[in-house]
Amino acid sequence: MPYRILTLNRISERGLARFAGAPYEVGDQVQAPDAILVRSADMHAMTLPATLKAVARAGAGTNNIPVEALSRRGVPVFNTPGANANAVKELVLAGLLLAARNICQAWEFVRGLDGDDQAIELAAERGKQHFVGFELPGRTLGVIGLGAVGVRVANAAEALGMQVLGYDPQLTVQRAWQLSASVQQAASLEDLCARSDAVTIHVPLTSETRHLFDRTRIAHMRRGALLLNFARAPIVDTAALLDALQAGQLHAYVCDFPSAALRGHPRVIALPHLGASTLEAEDNCAVAAAESLREFLELGHVRNSVNFPDAVLARQSGSIRIAIANDNVPNMVGQISTCLAEARLNIAELLNRSRGDYAYTLIDAEGNADERLLQRLAAIQGVRSVRLVTP
Hints:
Helix content is 32%, strand content 21%. By secondary structure, it is α/β, with parallel strands linked by helices. The chain folds into three domains: 110 residues, 3-Layer(aba) Sandwich (Rossmann fold), CATH 3.40.50.720; 185 residues, 3-Layer(aba) Sandwich (Rossmann fold), CATH 3.40.50; 84 residues, ACT domain (Alpha-Beta Plaits). Helix 6 links the parallel strand 6 and strand 7.
């Protein structure tokens, strides 16, 4: 019986090709899906099918997915960190240049000129003094969040001749190796804001980062600085931002999230969420999401999940594989092992990984698992989901 994949958005053909030649039924009309492949569709009001085993987002953010509700059901949610990093990096650099040189305001000025060539040329010469900008070399860019996108932005800005300050208390060893040695570490967000001519934000939206840039933090920024937000709209307090623009505390705000409050403001460049809108990024995200689903469904592996730990176990020849999502509580592995022993199954390999409140267990066992064993495992208090993994 094929695995059924429901698509909620148009998915790149390169991504869908990863399911070709394998036992998969894929499409936007699939019933009783084993997995859902999504881009931007809002799943919060969606009735989640009982058959659902996994959700993969072809992108980085998962705000459109009810992650906690799926976690309680033992359903991993996958994303594709880094797959669209270059596309976002290029747009951030474009936004930085647009704001530094007042390009959008100058373009709108020229679009409004009337008359013949001589009149337009004369008006352009007279008007250009209003759009004097500044060059990037020697200026300081503050980068908040040094993940896949932030590291690329920092390195590219440094290559353009800028001094770069970085701030990320959760910087990984992998990203640290990728970061240019010239990037300086800021002691705090306030330190970064006070020393930067432009600040760009690359952190996820959480309860801690909502309104990260409020009146107090914006007040720490250099007068006339640029603020760029290609992460999530609520990270910046709109009311505080508009007041800072009006007072001249900020020179410009560049973001990927238009709104009624921002529309038409002369110092705001608001783009229609173009961060990952390149053919290459759409392909990369779709391929990565499809690969995560295939690995999970066929092997039980978890990679790039936002709610469960990475878990990869080499398959033991001739064994059966059981995948269990469970609460991260004491004696869980002991209870699982007891159930298998009572069913006369010998454990060949066992992997248990935890992340926060949840854990994931992969077991290769010698013998046969019937429905009664799976039901007994599912009945253990704290077990969220159980499945027999079949290639």
